[in-house]
Design a protein that fits this description.
483 residues, mainly beta, seven-stranded mixed beta sheet, six-stranded mixed beta sheet, 4 helices, 13% helix, elongated
Length: 483
């Protein structure tokens, strides 16, 4: 009986435990099904109001426009560059900053200082912001630097470089010391750089310009010769003003066997005076020179005077100009130096292709005779000294005999900047009138009338033949008399 009671008691405990477990599970499931009240969400923090400042972060890839143009100006204070559009010929200015990238034609990074005014460049920019994003030396452009041998034809508007001919366009920029100049401001002695695309030259820059040389106390050497370096030789005339490339030169002057050498430095656009009064001319020495001409019928002119070459010719020591010419042959011009008692020279003329003209003279001689009857008038600016290829002509308005070809006209007045122009004179059978811009004042304190004023030349402004002849006569009289 005790055992049965004990079993019933244990059975009751087990049943209570099972019921308790079931109740616990039921409570847990019920609790999980009861919707829980969520905690209230935190209020969102308001974001700051966005303001359009207009600032745009740019870079080489940020652009909406591209162009191939000429770099024509730089403003360091405003940090801007100005370009000339090649298609429309219009200028536009763009700003630049630290985000602007610059490259050479091969895509290598370069600095702004390595670019030059006149360079042809490819640019990308933001048109709305007028901001330059990238600039590169144009890979499609060609360039020639430090060119000394070229031929500019101002009538045909082209230039020959190394056997190639390039056209000069309305957009072609002529530059000297980072400023624009005119084509006629160039001198044949200038050293130039050229840039262009295809057959067009678009930029001409003066790498080495020119200045002016005046001889002082040269009375004993008028009619003699001056040699400047190795390339320039010219007869000395009264009051001459020579156009010379900038640089340092050994100058030789000679006349009647005398003279000497001096060193001179020529600066761009400046006039340099060389005093040769201390050079002496000894008693003239002469040498006997025998000339052999081929063909024998050729005529020889020595210092402008026809010479008798049937025997030895007596010539003073020094430099002399020889011109040999004959019908059907090319004329020969050369210079010889006489420095010994006797000597000989052989002169050979080359035959021209084709027959000479019916008049019995060569075409070159005929052209020269034709143009000698016409004149070139310089009428502006007034009251300035006029020099033709270094030789004094007169006070403007004045004139000189017309000779076709390229010539250098120099204008000078005390207190003003001396200017020289290269002009292409045509071979038309008519007079030609030239006018130039006013000279620029250098120092108002020294400005005044020209140093070599000549009333009769200044008053001969009429273009009729009688007044022209009078003007030429007066100028020639001044040159020979020194008044």
């Amino acid at each position: 009986m005790k055992r049965k009671k004990k079993d019933r008691k244990n059975h009751r405990k087990s049943l209570v435990a099972v019921i308790a477990a079931l109740l616990t599970m039921t409570f847990a499931v019920g609790y999980s099904m009861i919707p829980r009240k969520e905690a209230p969400a935190a209020e969102p923090t308001p974001s700051p109001e966005r303001v359009d400042t207009g600032f745009v972060l740019t870079g080489p890839e940020s652009f909406d426009s591209a162009d191939t143009a000429i770099l024509v100006d730089r403003d360091e204070k405003k940090n801007t560059l100005t370009f000339l559009n090649l298609e429309l010929g219009r200028r536009y200015t763009l700003s630049m900053d630290g985000t602007t990238r610059m490259y050479d034609k091969y895509g290598q990074i370069m600095s702004l200082d390595q670019f030059s005014i006149g360079d042809i460049v490819d640019v990308t920019f933001l048109k709305s912001k007028k901001h330059l994003t990238a600039m590169q030396l144009s890979p499609s452009a060609w360039s020639y630097s430090d060119v000394t041998r070229y031929e500019l034809n101002r009538i045909r508007r082209d230039v020959s470089i190394g056997g190639e001919t390039y056209k000069i366009t309305d957009n072609t920029q002529f530059l000297s010391e980072n400023r624009n100049i005119e084509m006629m401001d160039l001198n044949p002695s200038d050293v130039l750089s050229f840039q262009g695309i295809d057959t067009q030259v678009l930029s001409v820059r003066v790498d080495k310009g020119h200045g002016y040389l005046r001889l002082v106390n040269d009375e004993n050497f008028v009619g003699g010769w001056i040699e400047i370096g190795q390339a320039q030789i010219q007869r000395i005339t009264e009051d001459m003003l020579l156009t010379v490339p900038e640089g340092s030169y050994q100058v030789n002057v000679s006349n009647r066997g005398g003279g000497g050498s001096k060193t001179v430095v020529i600066n761009r656009n400046e006039e340099t005076c060389l005093d040769i009064g201390d050079l002496e001319i000894p008693e003239p020495k002469t040498g006997m020179v025998l000339f052999s001409l081929n063909p024998p019928k050729a005529e020889l002119y020595i210092d402008g005077t026809k010479a008798d070459t049937s025997g030895p010719v007596s010539l003073e020591y020094g430099i002399h100009q020889l011109i040999a010419k004959a019908d059907g042959y090319h004329s020969v011009t050369q210079y010889i130096s006489i420095a010994q008692e006797s000597g000989g020279f052989d002169i050979v003329l080359d035959a021209v292709d084709g027959e000479s003209d019916e008049s019995g003279s060569s075409s070159t001689g005929s052209s020269q005779i034709t143009t000698n009857y016409y004149k070139v008038y310089v009428d502006a600016p007034e009251s300035v000294e006029v020099y033709l290829d270094g030789n004094y002509i007169g006070i403007s308005p004045c004139n000189f005999k017309k000779a076709s070809g390229s010539h250098t006209i120099t204008l000078r007045r005390t207190g003003y900047v001396t200017r020289s122009y290269t002009v292409q004179i045509d071979d038309e059978a008519k007079d030609l009138t030239l006018s130039f811009a006013d000279l620029v004042l250098t120092d108002p304190a020294t400005a005044g009338p020209p140093a070599s004023s000549n009333t009769s030349s200044s008053n001969s402004s009429s273009s009729n033949s009688s007044s022209s002849n009078t003007s030429s006569s007066n100028s020639a009289s001044r040159n020979s008399s020194g008044n």
